[in-house]
Write a structure and sequence with these properties.
3 helices, alpha+beta
Length: 162
């Protein structure tokens, strides 16, 4: 990946936008609980999403033939954040990606435990997932052409503080 934020396209089966059933969401929670590297804040956000998902989108991007998925995790209503949070499961790990705000395509990984070739591979597959999912997982929305950036200084739980 170069300084321009571009990542080469992912290889393999494309993702598809699909219904997120209650059973599938329980499996997402299991994935988060079973991943020792998963951020505690993401686990909390996913639990809140599960408890309140009747009022939120019920779609996710999934890949046939392998366990990989992307879902939008709405922020709790008590927050004043304009950033969006996504959970991306790939190669046995659950990652949290965020946007800087609602309007720009800038996306970053909320943790720093992944780097080099592994990070490039994750970003490449995430870009493919976003092409199916879009920004909010709404049918007909179209893909989300994200631009990967480094984690901003001052990243707090519910967005970027400057």
């Amino acid at each position: 990946m170069g300084d321009d934020g571009e990542t080469p396209p992912a290889q393999g089966t494309p993702f598809r936008l699909d219904e997120l059933s209650d059973e599938a969401l329980v499996n997402v929670l299991r994935d988060a609980a079973g991943d020792g590297a998963c951020l505690a804040d993401l686990k909390t956000d996913l639990t809140q999403f599960y408890k309140n998902h009747h009022a939120t989108p019920k779609r996710w991007a999934v890949r046939n033939g392998e366990k990989a998925y992307l879902l939008f995790v709405p922020a709790p209503l008590r927050t004043k954040s304009s950033s969006l949070t996504y959970a991306f499961y790939f190669e046995g790990r659950l990652y949290r990606f965020r946007t800087v705000d609602l309007y720009r395509p800038d996306v970053y990984l909320s943790e720093s435990s992944v780097s080099g070739a592994a990070l490039t591979r994750v970003k490449s597959h995430l870009r493919t997932a976003f092409s199916a999912h879009g920004k909010f997982g709404i049918p007909g929305e179209g893909g989300f052409d994200c631009r990967f950036i480094k984690r901003p200084l001052g990243d707090s739980r519910f967005g970027v503080t400057r």
